[in-house]
Amino acid sequence: MSQGPLAVRWGAPPALEPHAGTTALVRVELENAGTLSWGPTVALASHWLDLRDNPIDWDGPRNELPPLAPGGRVQVDARVRAPIPPGRYRLALDLVAEHRAWFSELGSPMLTQDVDVLPRAGEPHAVLPEDVEPAAGWAERVRAAHA
């Protein structure tokens, strides 16, 4: 049953174990549940919320979708960038008709799930141009900034 001209029906929430500040690919299944075909101006994006649904990081990376007629289904590998600092967040996937509206603003549900964002793994680092010499204590400051 359609929810209007721009509507989405989601598959199961994607598996995700993100590290703070990193970008991961997640597989997302969705269906065009509206009455209009989706063209190149419809994209998949993410929002990060706290556990009370307050926005923490709104308007994540855009992910292109193929053209999709009403009733059509597709699986896409979407880029999702995790927030900083690590902690428990709610990931919300949403569609946007660029320069028009978020589907959730039009009554279509977002796909949400609670996620533990993990600390970054490995030794922190930052790349400097070859002709720049780091100041004394620079490595310690980089490590502290990433902690």
Short description:
This protein is mostly beta strands and 147 residues long.
Structure write-up:
The protein is mainly β and 147 residues long. 6% of the residues lie in helices and 37% in strands. The longest helix has 9 residues, at 138-146. It has a single domain, classed as Immunoglobulin-like.
Average predicted confidence as pLDDT: 92
Helix percentage range: under 10%
Count of discrete structural domains: 1
Gross morphology is elongated
- Structural class based on helices, strands and sheet pairing: mainly beta
CATH class: Mainly Beta
The CATH topology label is: Immunoglobulin-like
Main pleated sheet? 6 strands, antiparallel
How many beta-strand runs? Answer: 9
CATH superfamily descriptor: Immunoglobulins
The Cα radius of gyration reads 19 Å
Which terms summarize this structure?
mainly beta; Immunoglobulin-like; 6-stranded antiparallel β-sheet; 1 helix; 9 strands; 37% strand
Write the layout of secondary structure elements.
Elements: E1 8-10, E2 23-32, E3 42-49, E4 55-57, E5 63-64, E6 73-81, E7 87-97, E8 101-102, E9 111-117, H1 138-146
Antiparallel strand pairs: 1-2, 2-6, 3-4, 3-5, 3-7, 7-8, 7-9
